[in-house]
């Protein structure tokens, strides 16, 4: 019995060692290809709708542009893994690093290392927040749609539809993310004084949680006649829509969401949502061009804002019928 | 004075037993939270009939609706923990089962078949845990930790990384009803969950099953010698935990008819463990209380409801959650109960000494 167990342990550890060795070889082979510039992509990993479309597009675009892209996703938004991947890319002396960070702070040390190794860093989608000037100088450019703009669009929609003022809720993403802060800032800057946000609550980007939270908020503020819900992403908006429907308020409460996934556009056509602001994930080509230009010695803009659109029921139907949406 | 005290203590054995029971403190905590919510929001206890859904509506009802999934995973977790094991994979199994159900529905499978198959998926994952733990004797912690990571990955593979939405699939009403419907005005998922908890309870307490599970938790070797088959029992509890987690996964995804491969069931293994511990099951195994875990599960849902009702800042919610749980655990601690008796005894001694000197 004992021997049998030991044999299994031996086989298992042997297999583990072999697979590690295989990984090591694979990495070297990739890194050693001199004909193509090597780009390290520190990514978030598949997370549904936006993220999957965004990262697939980036990978395709870099491949097309003749780069060797090493994709390194993290899991469950673990920043530690991202930092490890980043440092590994610096040690391997890749030609450039594309960083899609899970959190905006905590990158100073890694960026300094990149600066020392003279590796240019391009941040995509989420911007990072660095205090150290040396670390900041490692970042060549930030490429992505503007979250503040998206927040402003949401506020504008509410301003237009309720010129006499209205009450409503905001469903936020997880506390501390730059996306959440920026979308909120955009909203705060543009919203009219006569619009009252009864309460802001986090639903952690989750459909299911948003439904629970919205049901709770609708119960609690029934007497104040809530007329709008600004959900900071589509997933939460879809959950809020179901809570609104169950409460028998469909059509009376306007739901505004940001992202523009297919499910949200469909819900817009069905009348469950009222307004969707796209957060365009398709900017692989622009990113690849920026990296290429920089490596070729051309100057690159430090902030490349990707255009996004807004959708109402009619334009959502058009977009869905055209069938050109990538996500 | 001292005489009076002892008489009072002797006169209230029921009160004393109540005070030292974990169940009492969970119920007290539940009532306190409800009272706090009612003070803050006067309509908290109000119930109304909702024509749209054909059931009762109100804050308490949504709380019960949410508690159904915690009831399921906490029940499975109770059995596993009482064999001195742990199942960290319940949250991920929820995501896998939910992802499978949504994907089956979208691909046009009959809704009943989709439900059955996704429950089967959960059962299979549970059986794999069970087989690794019972037959190979692997550590439950590491086995289920790996299943937790693998399950999350599997959920992503099933939906190709997308958050599959089955909301517009025709004929999915039975599944939707399971999570959102009502039986005599009470949320269907809560009723289903309570029935399942009762069935598991009957199976454990009306047969020798419960005792066998506990004996495996106390000493595997000794229980083997008395004729119990510990391997079978271990396999069974993990399999049951997987199946119950799959039901919880269906509740969670069917409520919005959409699976969120990253968020569905995320961190819920921790909630399940908390519910079990609050309910009075020892993490060392050998003793369990299903009714305690059930109240613990409802309590977890109530804490989350309190967070929404009080409008606690999203950055502070984990801290609030932790504080409430710690307070409950402290109230339950036997040391605290003996502490108050100790203080009484000392005070009595002091007053006696005073009386003597006087």
UniProtKB/TrEMBL annotation, chain A:
Pfam families: Peripla_BP_4. This is D-ribose ABC transporter substrate-binding protein. Residues 39-298 form the Periplasmic binding protein domain. Keywords: Signal. The keyword Lyase does not apply. It comes from Bifidobacterium pullorum subsp. gallinarum. Belongs to the bacterial solute-binding protein 2 family. One of its GO terms (cellular component) is cell envelope. InterPro entries: Peripla_BP_I, SBP_2_dom. Residues 1-21 form the signal peptide. It comes from the Bacteria. Its main location: other.
UniProtKB/TrEMBL annotation, chain B:
GO terms for molecular function: transmembrane transporter activity. Keywords: Cell membrane, Membrane, Transmembrane, Transmembrane helix. The keyword Signal does not apply. GO terms for cellular component: plasma membrane. It comes from the Bacteria. It holds the Pfam family BPD_transp_2. It is a multi-pass membrane protein. It is found in: Cell membrane. Its main location: membrane. The chain crosses the membrane at residues 23-49, 70-99, 111-134, 141-161, 181-204, 233-256, 268-286. This is Ribose/xylose/arabinose/galactoside ABC-type transport system, permease component. It comes from Bifidobacterium pullorum subsp. gallinarum. The lineage of its organism: Bacteria, Bacillati, Actinomycetota, Actinomycetes, Bifidobacteriales.
């Amino acid at each position: 019995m004992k021997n049998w167990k030991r044999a299994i342990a031996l086989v298992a550890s042997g297999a583990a060692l072999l697979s590690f060795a295989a990984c090591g070889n694979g990495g070297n082979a990739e890194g050693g290809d001199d004909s193509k510039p090597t780009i390290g992509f520190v990514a978030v990993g598949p997370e549904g709708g936006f993220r999957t479309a965004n990262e697939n597009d980036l990978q395709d675009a870099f491949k097309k542009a003749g780069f060797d892209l090493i994709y390194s996703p993290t899991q469950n938004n673990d920043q530690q893994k991202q930092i490890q991947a980043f440092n590994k890319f610096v040690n391997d002396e890749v030609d450039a690093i594309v960083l899609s960070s899970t959190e905006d702070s905590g990158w100073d040390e890694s960026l300094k290392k990149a600066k020392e190794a003279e590796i240019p860093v391009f941040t995509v989608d989420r911007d990072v927040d660095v205090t150290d000037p040396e670390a900041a100088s490692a970042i060549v450019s930030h490429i992505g749609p503007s979250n503040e703009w998206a927040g402003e669009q949401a506020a504008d929609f509410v301003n237009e539809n309720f010129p006499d003022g209205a009450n409503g809720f905001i469903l936020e993403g997880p506390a501390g993310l730059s996306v959440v802060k920026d979308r909120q800032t955009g909203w705060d800057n543009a919203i009219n004084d006569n619009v009252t946000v009864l309460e802001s609550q986090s639903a952690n980007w989750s459909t299911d949680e948003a439904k629970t939270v919205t049901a709770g908020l609708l119960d609690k503020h029934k007497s104040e006649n809530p007329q709008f819900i600004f959900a900071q992403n589509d997933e939460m908006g879809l959950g809020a829509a179901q809570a609104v429907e169950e409460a028998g308020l469909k059509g009376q409460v306007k739901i505004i969401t940001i992202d523009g996934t297919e499910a949200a556009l469909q819900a817009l056509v069905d009348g469950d949502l009222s307004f969707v602001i796209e957060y365009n994930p398709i900017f692989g080509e622009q990113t690849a061009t920026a990296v290429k230009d920089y490596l070729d010695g051309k100057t690159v803009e430090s902030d490349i804002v990707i255009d996004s659109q807004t959708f109402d029921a009619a334009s959502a139907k058009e977009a869905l019928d055209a069938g050109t949406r990538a996500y | 004075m001292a005489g009076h005290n002892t008489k009072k203590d002797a006169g209230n054995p029921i009160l004393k037993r109540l005070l030292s029971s974990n169940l009492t403190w969970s119920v007290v905590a539940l009532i306190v939270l409800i009272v706090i919510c009612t003070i803050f929001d006067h309509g908290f206890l109000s119930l109304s009939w909702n024509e749209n859904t054909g059931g009762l509506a109100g804050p308490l009802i949504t709380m019960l609706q949410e508690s159904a999934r915690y009831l399921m995973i906490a029940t499975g977790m109770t059995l596993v923990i009482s064999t001195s094991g742990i199942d960290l994979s319940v949250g991920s199994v929820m995501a896998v089962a939910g992802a499978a159900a949504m994907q089956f529905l979208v691909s046009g499978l009959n809704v009943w078949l989709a439900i059955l198959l996704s429950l089967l998926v959960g059962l299979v994952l549970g059986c794999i845990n069970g087989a690794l733990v019972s037959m190979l004797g692997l550590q439950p912690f590491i086995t289920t930790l790996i299943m937790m990571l693998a399950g999350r990955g599997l959920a992503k593979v099933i939906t190709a990384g997308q958050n599959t939405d089955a909301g517009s699939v025709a004929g999915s009403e039975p599944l939707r009803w399971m999570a959102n419907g009502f039986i005599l005005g009470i949320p269907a998922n809560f009723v289903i969950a309570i029935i399942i908890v009762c069935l598991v309870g009957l199976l454990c307490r009306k047969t020798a099953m419960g005792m066998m599970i506990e004996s495996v938790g106390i000493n595997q070797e000794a229980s083997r010698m008395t004729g119990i088959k510990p391997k079978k029992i271990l396999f069974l509890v993990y399999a049951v935990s997987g199946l119950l987690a799959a039901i919880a996964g269906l509740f969670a995804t069917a409520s919005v008819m959409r699976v969120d491969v990253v968020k569905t069931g995320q961190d819920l293994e921790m909630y399940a463990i908390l519910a079990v511990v609050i309910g009075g099951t020892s993490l060392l195994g050998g003793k369990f209380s299903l009714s305690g875990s059930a109240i613990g599960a409802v309590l977890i849902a109530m804490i989350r409801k309190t967070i929404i009702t009080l409008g606690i800042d999203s950055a502070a919610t984990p801290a609030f959650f932790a504080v409430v749980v710690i307070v409950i655990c402290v109230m339950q601690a036997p040391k605290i109960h003996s502490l108050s008796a100790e203080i009484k005894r000392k005070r009595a001694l002091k007053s006696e000494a005073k009386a003597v000197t006087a």
